[in-house]
Design goal:
Blueprint: H1 2-23, E1 42-47, H2 49-52, H3 56-67, E2 74-79, H4 85-90, H5 92-95, E3 103-107, H6 120-139, E4 143-147, H7 154-158, H8 167-191, E5 194-196, H9 199-209, H10 227-240, E6 246-254, E7 260-265, E8 267-275, E9 278-285, H11 297-303, H12 305-309, E10 311-316, E11 323-328, E12 331-337, H13 338-343, E13 345-346, H14 354-396, H15 401-414, H16 417-438, E14 443-450
Parallel strand pairs: 1-2, 1-3, 3-4, 4-5, 6-10
Antiparallel strand pairs: 6-7, 8-9, 9-14, 10-13, 11-12, 11-14
Helix pairs in contact: 3-10, 3-14, 10-11, 14-15, 14-16
Length: about 450
């Protein structure tokens, strides 16, 4: 009897413990909702040739320079043409960790899939190497932001007679990249990391445009997005990482007693005055519109970048009926009907405004920075990648004299790379100093007056 009671007691304890375990809610990680940035934070863009192109990264830099003019972020491009996840691991210490990043974006996979239909062993290699990349990033205290590989444009590949590809690979490789990207999203979800979907917007815009233009492409060589496609990529980052979308909103109204009042976001307004033929006021914005170089114009239109991610709104109620010239710092930037002003006008895409021209000057200086010293810096690490691959091959074939000779030549070529990289990084910082001398919005005078 005592044994029976003891057994029943133990069974009740076990059941109670299991019930308590079942009652405890499962704690899932939360994926990164938005970047939390402050002055001095470092961001590294890790990737392959699509990052090495220095376009989507440049455009995101332009966003940071103009949207946060008083915040000095340290931004480093760590893209190398032809890179796979394994290659990124070989240069990680000096090309990623050395910059002490808070966030590391990772755009890898285009080369890892080897441009063939899905092959499980190939994917498992990518999977393990990517897990190692994520682990290394987290080990240095940074947050990884995984990005779905970009689109492989099968139609563009078929239209390129100079490059002969296997028909099955051409037809199926974009699906392989979709699979890789979905896996990246799953890892980001499980671990509570950041994620940016680069694949979907490129594919969706291409699909929609081909309804009217069957030859449309954003990726002429099937692999590397041109400037327009890279704008799509940059806007995907702003969309997916919870960054501010609007520059400013100015709403001015005339009260029944004749006084003018304003509600604003994104800056400070002062000295609102009624004139004989309109009003004037002073406006000091917190930021500039997101303006990109001319070669990116198609991408700006396709993504509606200005309206969606750079809104600069002006709304005025109480004006006398008529058409009004808008002058900013004495420069006429447009003529608007009083009813349009009452609804609101958008200025972010108006190339005549002083703030647009200021933002364009920032973008052009950053273009110079990317096309010169940043380009030279990435060439250095391209040479290192060749060396790392040769070293791996030589270690696997120690009796291969040709490989051993090649390794010695490449060893000499990469000697001193850390010091040269530091010099080029300093040169890039000097150009960035110039950007931060030109990216602060000054106080500007706005005048609305009846047009002749």
């Amino acid at each position: 009897m005592r044994k029976l009671l003891l057994s029943l007691t133990l069974l009740a304890m076990v059941n109670g413990h299991l019930a308590a375990q079942e009652a405890e809610p499962v704690q899932f990680a939360k994926p990164l909702a938005q970047l939390e940035l402050q002055d001095g934070d470092s961001i590294v863009f890790l990737g392959d040739s699509i990052t090495h192109q220095r376009l989507y990264t440049q455009y995101v830099e332009d966003y940071f320079y103009t949207r946060f003019p008083e915040m000095r972020l340290k931004i480093h491009n760590s893209g190398v043409g032809g890179a796979r996840a394994w290659d990124a691991l070989q240069r990680f210490d000096d090309d990623v960790a050395a910059y002490k990043p808070k966030y590391v974006t990772v755009l890898l996979g285009m080369n890892d899939g080897t441009y063939v239909p899905y092959h499980d062993e190939t994917f498992q290699t990518y999977r393990q190497d990517m897990i190692n990349v994520v682990d290394r990033i987290q080990d240095i205290g940074a947050t990884p932001i995984l990005m779905a590989p970009t689109m492989f444009d099968a139609r563009a590949a078929r239209l390129n007679p100079r490059r002969k590809r296997d028909p099955n690979s051409t037809a199926l490789y974009n699906s392989v990249l979709a699979y890789y990207g979905t896996w990246c999203q799953e890892i980001a979800t499980e671990r509570g990391l950041g994620f940016v979907d680069m694949w979907s917007p490129l594919n969706q815009i291409t699909f929609n445009r081909r309804k009217t233009d069957p030859n449309f492409t954003l990726i002429a060589d099937a692999v590397h997005p041109g400037a327009a496609g890279q704008v799509v990529m940059a806007t995907a980052m702003i969309d997916n990482l919870g960054l501010p979308r609007r520059v400013s909103n100015i709403k001015i109204s005339k009260a029944a007693n004749g006084d003018w009042a304003a509600k604003v976001t994104g800056g400070e307004i002062s000295e609102i005055k009624e004139t004989e033929d309109g009003i004037s006021f002073q406006w000091e914005a917190d930021s500039l519109p997101w303006v990109l170089p001319e070669e990116a114009a198609q991408g700006v239109r396709l993504t509606r970048l200005g309206h969606r991610l750079s809104g600069e709104m002006l709304e005025v109620h109480g004006l006398k009926p008529g058409k009004y010239d808008l002058l900013i710092d004495g420069q006429k930037v447009g003529t608007y009907d009083w009813t349009a002003l009452g609804r609101h006008i958008e200025l972010q895409g108006n190339a005549k405004t002083p703030q647009y021209q200021q933002a364009l000057a920032v973008a052009m200086k950053n273009k110079e920075r990317n096309e010169t010293v940043i380009g030279e810096l990435r060439k250095e690490w391209l040479g290192f990648q060749r060396y790392a691959r040769t070293r791996r091959s030589a270690e696997a074939a120690p009796d291969n004299e040709q490989l051993q000779k090649q390794l010695k030549v490449q060893e000499a070529g990469v000697e001193g790379i850390v010091e040269r990289s530091a010099k080029l990084t300093a040169d890039a910082t000097a150009l960035e100093d110039e950007i931060f001398e030109m990216n602060t919005p000054p106080k500007r005078e706005y005048v609305l007056k009846l047009a002749n």
